[in-house]
From TrEMBL:
GO terms for molecular function: hydrolase activity; metal ion binding. The keyword Zinc applies. This is MBL fold metallo-hydrolase. Transmembrane segments: none annotated. It comes from Rubellicoccus peritrichatus. Pfam families: Lactamase_B. Keywords: Hydrolase, Metal-binding, Zinc. Residues 13-193 form the Metallo-beta-lactamase domain. Its cofactor is Zn(2+). InterPro entries: MBL_Glyoxalase_II (IPR051453), Metallo-B-lactamas (IPR001279), RibonucZ/Hydroxyglut_hydro (IPR036866). PANTHER family: HYDROXYACYLGLUTATHIONE HYDROLASE GLOC.
Length: 211
């Protein structure tokens, strides 16, 4: 059985999700905010879990500040290729947001493409690109588990900001309608900030994008 744990981490309470399967003794991480390795490593050790990979939903700084520590621990990182320019500009992002903390530029092992598919903990995972907040923001949809990790495309009762480079509300609205609202209504959505929600709930009540 898949266990999903969320950890809101600095500097802006960005959710990191640890997916684990006790029967296989393996785990996967979704997103890598600052301090993520220090947060999850005691759990991995206590439960004898092997962290197989980390998939980044997009390249905004708050989702990747902990990624270099994962590099140090030989954890493969994946990111959509449409966010390569944003990823390469991490230092500029931090300057833009007034952050001067030292950091090490992470290294990506696998660049995902539109239509890519993965296997996470023995389960098929469909990658859907949802631009509008970031060019390479992806949805990681696990049909067998009826859940999807949506980055900052959509939140419970809200949507991702569109005033950053590469952002467009029109594009985001189209992405949500075509790539998220087309998922089964019972699908649980795990966003990059805030609580989980469902496709049905957002289609019925999200004030920014009507289903």
């Amino acid at each position: 059985m898949l266990q999903i744990r969320s950890f809101p981490l600095p500097p802006v309470q960005t959710n990191a999700f640890l997916l684990s399967d006790a029967s296989s003794g393996k785990a996967v991480l979704i997103d890598a905010p600052q301090g993520v390795w220090e947060t999850i490593s005691p759990i991995l050790q206590e439960e004898s879990l092997i962290l197989e990979a980390c998939v980044l939903t997009h390249a905004h700084f708050d989702h990747v500040l902990g990624a270099s520590t994962l590099n140090d621990n030989m954890i493969p990182l994946s990111l959509h290729q449409a966010d390569k320019l944003m990823f390469d500009a991490l230092s500029q992002q931090m300057t833009f947001f007034g952050m001067d903390s030292p950091f090490v530029q992470p290294t990506i092992d696998t660049w995902l493409e539109d239509g890519s598919s993965l296997e996470l903990l023995g389960r098929p995972a469909e990658i859907r690109r949802v631009p509008g907040h970031a060019e390479g923001n992806i949805v990681i949809y696990l049909p067998d588990e009826q859940c999807a990790f949506v980055g900052d495309a959509i939140f419970a009762g809200s949507v991702g900001r569109t005033d950053l480079p590469g952002g467009s509300f029109e594009v985001l609205e189209k992405s949500i309608k075509e790539q998220i609202y087309t998922l089964p209504d019972e699908t649980t959505l795990y966003p990059g900030h805030g609580p989980e929600t469902t496709v049905a709930r957002e289609k019925a009540s999200n004030p920014y994008v009507q289903g």
